[in-house]
Write a structure and sequence with these properties.
Blueprint lengths: L7 E9 L2 E10 L3 E6 L10 H4 L2 H4 L2 E6 L24 H14 L6 E5 L1 H12 L6 E5 L20 H10 L8 H11 L3 H14 L17 E5 L7 H9 L5 E5 L6 H4 L1 H19 L19 H15 L1
Parallel strand pairs: 3-4, 3-5, 5-6, 7-8
Antiparallel strand pairs: 1-2, 2-4
Helix pairs in contact: 5-6, 10-11
Length: 317
């Protein structure tokens, strides 16, 4: 029998630093807005399982967009974009996200992004702590040099294969094979935007010496990093979190650089843990799914968190 997904897709048009952007987004759920940014060169399909996760969407309105020039979001409509090289900057990236949230009239959204989306989450916490209830930087760090490679778009290179193959060994071998191949497939489609995204990731994003300006009490920061990520390692994530007042760091075991698409079932448990931390810090009553109820005294039960994660990993082995 056919099943129709509860996820809906729509377009919204808004201005970003003079660019007219018609942006596609998927959404599902009710309650606290949870805005999700895909990884570099990819699109919102990476959040497919989260968008259909009933434990999350019963309390959270999950919104996953395609950054302009990605997926179903075309380049700016009012300019000859093909005459200039695409290089994503921190200023433009931050302006885009805040304009998107304003266009949808999202009140106190939680922002979550992975990889270059995780890095911009840190930028948002620094620049707009009053606009976001909290941020969840996934696979992020203060600085991620070395991944802006000119030869990736050389005529003698197959950009689609290079992009897809380049992400394969960033995933954990324990992750389900079908999900690793789905992540690989996504990256065969986004090669033209990949290099420009990596300009932000490895060149323009640099918060070294600025992390102490982020107030993790005003805008809670909960960082998640997989232990199979060699681009932004757990050591990078932990070092970054330690320099942010009030920030927390969670190392995700048996998962890599694309946790939301390579192994959602395991990632969900870590995400629920992060959401409970945010609830504790903000005093909100939202619960992070059936396994994420708050404790009566308003503090999280860390032993319970560990037990849930162990059960999830055992079930996936």
């Amino acid at each position: 029998m056919a099943q129709i997904s509860p996820v809906t897709g729509r377009y919204v048009t808004f201005d970003v630093m003079g660019d007219e952007c018609k942006v596609f987004f998927l959404e599902n759920g009710e309650g606290q807005p949870l805005v999700c940014q895909h990884t570099a060169g990819c699109h919102n399909h990476q959040w497919r399982d989260l968008l259909e996760d009933e434990e999350i969407t019963q309390n959270y309105r999950v919104v996953a967009y395609d950054l302009v020039r990605h997926g179903k979001s075309d380049p700016p409509k009012n300019k000859e974009w093909w005459k200039e090289e695409y290089q994503l900057t921190a200023d433009y990236y931050v302006a885009f996200i805040t304009a998107f949230c304003d266009a949808l009239e999202l009140e106190d959204p939680i922002f979550m992004g992975s990889s270059f989306g995780g890095n911009v989450a840190l930028q948002l916490a620094l620049r707009h702590p009053d606009r976001f209830k909290a941020v969840i930087p996934v696979e992020a760090a203060d600085y991620s040099p070395g991944f802006y490679l000119d030869w990736w778009q050389h005529p003698h290179a197959n950009a689609a294969q290079v992009c897809a193959s380049g992400v394969w060994d960033l995933m954990a071998p324990q992750s389900p094979e079908k999900d690793r191949w789905a992540t690989w497939f996504y990256y065969t489609q986004g090669s033209e935007a990949f290099k420009g995204d990596l300009y932000f990731y490895s060149v323009d994003h640099d918060l070294r010496g600025k992390l102490d300006q982020i107030d993790g009490e005003k805008c809670p920061v909960v960082m998640l990093t997989g232990d199979y990520d060699y681009l932004t390692t757990p050591e990078d994530g932990r070092r970054t979190a330690e320099q942010i007042q009030g920030a927390e760091f969670i190392e995700m075991k048996d998962i890599g650089h694309f946790p939301m698409s390579e192994n959602h079932e395991l990632f969900r448990e870590y995400l629920q843990q992060a959401l409970r931390i945010i609830e504790d810090k903000t005093g909100s009553s939202t619960t992070a799914g059936a396994n994420g109820s708050q404790q009566g005294n308003g503090t999280r039960d860390e032993d319970q968190d560990k037990g849930i994660l162990e059960k999830a990993r055992d079930a996936l082995r």
